[in-house]
Amino acid sequence: MRVGILGGGQLGWMTVLEGKRMGFEFLVLDPDPTAPASKVADRWLPPERVNEFIKESNVITYEFEHIEEEILEKVYDLTLPSLDILELKRSKIKEKELYKKLGYPTPDFVTACWENLTEKVKAFGLPCVVKAERLGYDGKGQYRIYHPEDVEKALKNHSKEERFLIERLIDFSFEFSLIGVRDARGNAKLYPITVNQHEDGILLYNHTRAFQIREAEDIVLSLMENLNFVGLLAVEFFYTWDGKILVNEFAPRPHNTGHYSLDGCYTSQFENLLRAICGLPLGSTKLKVPSGMLNILGLSLKELDLNNLLSIEGVKLYWYGKEKRPRRKMGHINITANSEQEIEERLERLVNLIYSHEPS
Ligand code: ATP
Ligand code: MG
User: In the Cβ-directed half-sphere of 96, how many Cα atoms lie within 13 Å?
Assistant: First the structure.
């Protein structure tokens, strides 16, 4: 089986590494031959050679969302999850409207254009969050508005053609995510819940929790069914202080909060994506041991205290080999232990070891 992956980032890298173990072959389409997945694929191709990429792939999937329109049109027939679903995800406005249509709880929102953003924010009420409709990730294109003048920053960073989502700022008790996988026959499985700790809009660490939230499970299963979804779908939620859940967003691809599954589950999210899109039976999503994951943001390998880090039991280091930039996801650590409490203790030790100063 030859799988084409659009995008050469770390999600593709882990998909390739997991798939190669099972005898899959991979083509990666990315402008950068030194991107993590480009380096480990059987074949790297730049976007200009998309026709070759299509000809040689049995099935195509994607590991990031912001792909050029022209390429999407060309790969449409071979791509799973369906690009119609990616299209929803590429617009934060369409995505929210879908939740509303399907009756899922989500923070209240209105939409705005560049011209009327200030006015709409005022009418909506503060505090709120302004999110650019397109191209946001890791908190980019996202603005917390506590004072009317905070809108200026959003206006300055975006062009007059852009649209925005204005969303209620939720004072949540915690954030969690739920990852589902579904095959073409409609078989679906859910991974365990993870509780996620973000800092400045970017995931810092997460860990599994042995409780179930039925309403969230129903939403993920219903979303996959409604979309006739084939592949891996991650949904992020807020859990409010009064025990309500709200859908924040979905991602139709492997998710940062599912990296722990490489070491914590019988089948990783990457392997299950491949199984789902290649028509193979889905693997067990069950947890083997309590697990967690910590992102390494904006640091080089040299800046890590490997002696101490690797002395902690249950630590597995994943290093993507990317050029260092402030707050960029450079690698992650998966951690397993005998109890959830032990996971939390080890995560705290890891955070202290890695970020004895602020994450840079
Ligand atoms: P991702 O990299 O996950 O795709 P993103 O930048 O597209 O991220 P979100 O997931 O919407 O955007 O937001 C990132 C984080 O910002 C959330 O996980 C949450 O911590 C915070 N956040 C987003 N929206 C809200 C909100 N309405 N109220 C409170 N916090 C929010
Ligand atoms: Mg998110």
Answer: 20
The topology (CATH level 3) of 108-168 is Dna Ligase; domain 1 (3.30.1490)
Amino acid 43 reads: R
Here the tokens at position 199 are 């800092």
What is the position in ligand 1's atom list of the atom closest to the CA of 203? Answer: 18
Please give the Cα distance from 11 to 6 (Å, whole number). Answer: 11
CB 17 within 8 A of CB 269: no
Give the model's confidence band at 357: pLDDT under 50 very low, under 70 low, under 90 confident, else very high: low
pLDDT digits (tens, 9 = 90+) for 37-84: 999 999 999 999 999 999 999 999 999 988 999 999 999 999 999 999
Average pLDDT estimate for 18-35: 98
172-354: CATH topology: D-amino Acid Aminotransferase; Chain A, domain 1 (3.30.470)
Counting ligand 1 atoms within 8 A of each CB, the residue from 137, 239, 248, 256 with the most, and so the one to mutate, is 248
Report residues whose beta carbon is within 6 angstroms of any ligand 1 atom.
107, 129, 136-140, 142, 167-170, 175, 198, 201, 236, 248-249
Q: Cα–Cα–Cα angle for 347, 352, 354, nearest 5°?
A: 90
How many angstroms does the Cα of residue 201 sit away from the middle of ligand 1? 6
